[in-house]
Structure formats: structure tokens, C-alpha cells
Design goal:
The structure holds 2 protein chains of 2 kinds. Chain A has helices at about 15-20, 25-35, 50-70, 80-85, 90-120, 130-150, 155-170, 175-185, 190-220, 240-265, 295-300, 315-325, 330-335, 345-370, 375-400, 410-415, 425; strands spanning about 40, 235-240. By secondary structure, chain A is an all-alpha fold. Chain A has 2 domains: about 1-35, no CATH class; about 35-425, Cytochrome Bc1 Complex, Chain C (Up-down Bundle), CATH 1.20.810. A two-stranded antiparallel sheet of chain A has the order 1-2. The radius of gyration of chain A is 24 Å and the shape is globular. Chain B folds into 2 domains: about 1-50; about 55-190, Rieske [2Fe-2S] iron-sulphur domain (Rieske Iron-sulfur Protein). Chain B is elongated. Chain B starts with about 20 loop residues before the first helix and ends with a strand. The model of chain B is unreliable at about 1-5 (pLDDT under 50). Classes of the chains: A mainly alpha, B alpha+beta. The interface between A and B is medium-sized, with 15 and 13 residues.
């Protein structure tokens, strides 16, 4: 929404006037991330992660295009060209480590971004479309990251490709033909490696397209904020530039310090040593795990160990794993509480901090652990809670909870006021 | 929000009255640091396209020249490009030395283009200095051009017996790479 008090872009000289008539790019930037975009004045650092995710997407595309200049997607030489990048190419080690750790940091910031969305219910009206696009981006990221991990053609690459395409083999009747079709063979080989490379190159640009839609959809209602109360007047807002360019810039600086610390001092800490062994179709590594950012979902996959009725356990695990993310698509319609911010929802907060977050942590740990007790049982409990939380607890809490009084406005929340807000007036989302 | 006297903080107040605020310093310092950092990032991004270590490692070539008879030439490979090694006949040497240097497009004597004591051993790149084609004249039966040296069929450059440009569009003589005789019969190029 362009708020009526948003500052108007005025071209300063002849050239920008010319540009403004023919192709108003400066106006677009001014209204998107400039002084022409009013933003709630109370955004916390949790609102940094969208910009950070955008930064890491760009970083991945830049380093990825460079790696593609030196890499060859051929099963004969893929592993060797990866080592060629590490040893021969000028700064190749930096490009590869930045790309590998960049993927991890992309997921870190996106998980924090999603966490922010969960806690502050950023998915609620009028921002459902932003959320749907965000979940789509997340799914695309997972596909891209998975295919990228196959490219070095190490042991984990190979067996990751085999296991993940094996998921599709769980589909009744058509599963096995689909798996063979996906791989272009009976096991991952040149055909699979080539198509994974092609798609790994393509998908980031699809993600970039979805990001543009995500931001476009965001700019219609504007950002949510920690109170969840909609903007009422100019005093609730600040212009994006300089206030949030500076705040995001600071956050970016902190993120880059952490990122470069990993790249320079712990470049392989998030990787797996088995991937420095060339792919061997005849020998599976003893302990095969996906990259850390897939662990919670991998734990859900492995939590299903017995057949249920006529459904085999293998299929149940696959359905649950995909379902655990796909159900985010209906989240805006599961959580019917009129109050957005978890800050004013005492019951929701209890389930969030003592239910969902511990369950996610347990799933994370179990996903990285071997498939043995007690991890299997813990995964099962956590998986059960995970689905219970979204499908049962959230809808019920939204009905029975008595929210705490909301501030009348963002300004009041920030500056304080004697006017006590009446719940009935502000509990419903501003339309 | 304009900084009025009432809202000015130490960062935004113009304490000394010279129009400079503490925040100006922070602004300039932060933007400068980001700018310098951004430029520093460009260096590896550009440098990665330069020849990699394995390419540089393959940049010397040893050639055995013992079997080349006068009037013959062999083609070797140096940095993935053809290298011509030619043993000139006494007549060819004489012809090259008889050419008035001042009239050449790229004035060089045969002595300048060969090594002392090996004036009959002409080592040049087999790369036309016009646009990079491989000139003819090294292999038996190939056209040697109007000056008896090399002839580039792409755009008609004629080189003489010292590999000097005599006619056609090429701007300079065939390049003589850096090389040394490691023995009487072996040269190391690069």
C-alpha cells in the first residue's frame, strides 16, 4: 500500500527527469527501499532476515556462476574439477567455500525469517500471498540445495541423490518408473548429474523471480510489525531509507562477520568428510545424513517405521515429510486468532515456546543422528507434536484464547500512552 | 524527521557550530568501509578468470631439435599454441641477412631473432600476428609465401625466412618466445 503520507519521488535533474518518463527505475527503487516506502517504526532485528536472505541469494548466484565456469558436470571428471577449483583456480577455494557455506547461511537466515513469521503470525490476512510465495521459495531452495550438493560427486552427493530420488520410489504403482525417469537410469550417473546441474543453474533464477513477487506482494500491505497492530497514521511509520537501510546494513555487517568466520576458519564444519571421497556406487557410507538444514524433515521421514493399514511405512514417511512443509500452505487458514503477534497471545506463546520449538529442536537433533534408539522414538514423539501443533492446537488456541490487551497503535506501543486500548476495537486485523 | 534542538542527541547536534555533526563522521566511515570492502571483494571475483595454476604449470615445453635437417621445420606445442622450430639452410640465412632492416615493417635482424651460435635455428610461435591463424610453410610441401618463409592463408600475410612480416596485414614479426638451449640438441621454451 502506498500510504498517503509516503514521500513523492521528484527527479532532481534533466537526466533523472528523462529516465522517469521513459523508464522510472529510480522511482521504483525510491518507492521500494527508499524514502518513499513508509515502514512501521517499531521493527526489531527479526525484520532483518528478509534482506539478509536476498543478500545470500545474490551471493549464491554470483559464486555459483563463477563455480560453473570451472566445473564440468560429467561423472568422469566432476569430482576432479571440484578439486581443480580448490587447488588450481585462483581464489577457487574461496568461491567454493563461500558457495557451500553461503547455502547454509541462506538457510539460517531463511529459518529465522520463517520463525519470525510463525511467532508474529506474519502469514495472516492481509499477507497470505506473501506467505504462500515464501513457502514456495523455501521449497525451491530445498530442491536447489539438494541438487547442488550432488554436483561435487562425492560419496554423500551420490548417496544423497540415490536416497532422495528413492523417496519418489515410495509412490504406489508409478514410484519406481518415476525414480528411474528422474535419474535417467537405475542409479545416479552421468544423466542424473547433468540434469541436476542444469536445474541447479536454473532454479536460483526461478527463486529470484518468486522473490520479486514476494516483495511485490509485501509492498501492498507493507511490513507487519512486532505488535501486529496495523499502521494507523504517519507517526506509526518511518521512511525505509535511511532508517531501515541502516538497520539492515548493520544486520548485514554482523551476518557477514559470522559468515566470513565460517568461510575462513571453519569452512568444512557444516559439511561432511565423506564428500571428499569420490562417488562409489558399490559402497554406501556407514552413516549417511543430509545437509544440516534438512535434518528436521529427514527425522520426520524416518519416524515412520511400521505400516499403517494398507499404507507401507516408506510411503507414510514420504507423505509426512512433504506434508510437514506443505501444510504451511494452509497455515493462514488454520490459525484463526484475530491477534497477530505472539506477544499478546499467552496460550499460543506457551505452545510455541514449550511445544513447537522443542519439537523442532528434537527433530533437528534426531535428523542428524543415526537411525537407532532413542532417536527414533524421540523423532516419533516430536513428529506427532509437530502435526498436532499445526492441525489441532493452533486452530483450537485461536478459538479459546483470551489475548492480552493490544496497544491502540504502534506509536502508543513505542512511546506509551495513557489511553488504554480496548481489546474489542483492535483485536481484529485492520482491513 | 528533522533534528530540532529539542530532539538533537550528541550524535546529531552541531556542537561546535561548524556544520559538522558526529553522525557525519559515522556516515562517511561506514560508507567508506563498505565501499573499500566491496572493492576488495571484486579482486577475487575478477582474478578467478585468470589462468589457473595447472595452466601456468604447463607453460614450459622441451623440444628435441636434433633430428631437424637444414630446410626442415617441426611443429611443437607451447601453451596450447603451435610452435615452429626451423633449421635454416645457409642460403636462407644469407637471404635473411641480406634484407635491409630499415625497410621492414617490424625492423629486426636475424641475429636478434635467434640465439648466438645457433643462427640457423629459428624458433617462432606458429601464430600469425594478424588475427592468430596458423601460417603455412612449416610442413613439407606447404606454401611458403613470396619470401620463402611462412604464409598465412587467412588474410595473406607473407613472412620471410627469419619469420619477419614482409607483406600483408600482420603488424609484427612472428613472435619469438623466450627459450634457452639446455643442450646442443634440446631447447626449453618458456
Amino acid at each position: 500500500m502506498s500510504f498517503p503520507w509516503a514521500k513523492e519521488y521528484t527527479p532532481a535533474n534533466g537526466f533523472t527527469k528523462f529516465l522517469d518518463e521513459k523508464l522510472p527505475l529510480p522511482r521504483l527503487v525510491y518507492n521500494a527501499v527508499g524514502a518513499g516506502y513508509p515502514v512501521p517504526r517499531n521493527l526489531s532485528y527479526f525484520w532483518n532476515f528478509g534482506v539478509l536472505a536476498g543478500f545470500f541469494l545474490v551471493l549464491q548466484i554470483v559464486t555459483g556462476i563463477i563455480l560453473a565456469m570451472h566445473y564440468a558436470a560429467n561423472a568422469q571428471v566432476a569430482f576432479a574439477t571440484t578439486e581443480h577449483i580448490m587447488r588450481n583456480v585462483n581464489w577457487g577455494w574461496l568461491m567454493r567455500y563461500a558457495h557451500a557455506n553461503g547455502a547454509s547461511f541462506f538457510f539460517i537466515v531463511v529459518y529465522l525469517h520463517i520463525f519470525r513469521g510463525f511467532y508474529y503470525s506474519s502469514y495472516k490476512a492481509p499477507r497470505e500471498m506473501i506467505w504462500l510465495l515464501g513457502v514456495t521459495i523455501f521449497l525451491l531452495m530445498m530442491a536447489t540445495a539438494f541438487m547442488g550438493y550432488v554436483l561435487p560427486w562425492g560419496q554423500m552427493s551420490f548417496w544423497g541423490a540415490k536416497v532422495i530420488t528413492g523417496l519418489f520410489g515410495a509412490i504406489p504403482l508409478v514410484g519406481e518408473p518415476i525414480q528411474i525417469w528422474l535419474l535417467g537410469g537405475y542409479a545416479p550417473d552421468n544423466a542424473a548429474l547433468n540434469r541436476f546441474f542444469s536445474l541447479h543453474f536454473l532454479l536460483p533464477f526461478v527463486i529470484a523471480g518468486c522473490v520479486i513477487l514476494h516483495i511485490w506482494a509485501l509492498h501492498i500491505p507493507g511490513s507487519s510489525n512486532p505488535t501486529g497492530v496495523e499502521i494507523k497514521s504517519e507517526s506509526d511509520t518511518l521512511p525505509f531509507h535511511p532508517y531501515y537501510t541502516v538497520k539492515d546494513g548493520f544486520g548485514l555487517g554482523v551476518a557477514l562477520i559470522l559468515f566470513m568466520t565460517m568461510v575462513f576458519f571453519l569452512p568444512n564444519a557444516l559439511g561432511h568428510p565423506d564428500n571428499y571421497i569420490e562417488a562409489n556406487p558399490l559402497s554406501t557410507p556407514a552413516h549417511i545424513v543430509p545437509e544440516w538444514y534438512f535434518w528436521p524433515f529427514y527425522a520426520i521421514l524416518r519416524a515412520f517405521t511400521v505400516d499403517f493399514l494398507f499404507i507401507p511405512a516408506k510411503l507414510l514417511g514420504v507423505i509426512a515429510m512433504f506434508g510437514s512443509i506443505l501444510l504451511w500452505f494452509i497455515l493462514p487458514w488454520l490459525d484463526r486468532s484475530p491477534v497477530r503477534s505472539g506477544h499478546y497471545r499467552p496460550l499460543f506463546r506457551k505452545f510455541f515456546w514449550f511445544g513447537l520449538i522443542p519439537a523442532m529442536i528434537v527433530l533437528f537433533i534426531c535428523g542428524g543422528a543415526p537411525a537407532e534408539e532413542p532417536y527414533v522414538m524421540l523423532s516419533q514423539l516430536a513428529t506427532a507434536y509437530y502435526f498436532l501443533h499445526f492441525l489441532v492446537i493452533l486452530p483450537i488456541v485461536g478459538q479459546i484464547e483470551k489475548p492480552e490487551p493490544l496497544p491502540y497503535s504502534i506509536t502508543e506501543a513505542v512511546l506509551g500512552s495513557d489511553k488504554k486500548a480496548v481489546l474489542g476495537e483492535n483485536a481484529s486485523p485492520a482491513v | 524527521m528533522a533534528d530540532t534542538a529539542a530532539t538533537a542527541t550528541p550524535e546529531t547536534a552541531d556542537e561546535t557550530g561548524d556544520g559538522i555533526r558526529r553522525r557525519d563522521f559515522i556516515d562517511i566511515a561506514a560508507v567508506s568501509a563498505a565501499g573499500v570492502g566491496g572493492l576488495a571483494v571484486l579482486y577475487p571475483l575478477i582474478s578467478q578468470m585468470a589462468p589457473s595454476k595447472d595452466v601456468l604449470a604447463a607453460s614450459t615445453t622441451e623440444v628435441d631439435v636434433s633430428a631437424i635437417q637444414p630446410g626442415q621445420a617441426i611443429k611443437a606445442v607451447f601453451r596450447k599454441q603451435p610452435l615452429f622450430v626451423r633449421r635454416l639452410t645457409p642460403a636462407e640465412v644469407q637471404e635473411a641477412n641480406a634484407t635491409p632492416v630499415g625497410a621492414l615493417r617490424d625492423p629486426q635482424t636475424l641475429a636478434e631473432r635467434t640465439q648466438e651460435g645457433h643462427q640457423d635455428m629459428l624458433v617462432t610461435m606458429g601464430v600469425c600476428t594478424h588475427l592468430g591463424c596458423v601460417p603455412l610453410g612449416a610442413a613439407e610441401g606447404e606454401v611458403k609465401g613470396e619470401f620463402g618463409g611462412y604464409f598465412c592463408p587467412c588474410h595473406g600475410s607473407h613472412y620471410d625466412t627469419a619469420g619477419r612480416i614482409r607483406k600483408g596485414p600482420a603488424p609484427t614479426n612472428l613472435e619469438v618466445p623466450e627459450y634457452t638451449f639446455t643442450s646442443d640438441t634440446t631447447i626449453q621454451v618458456g
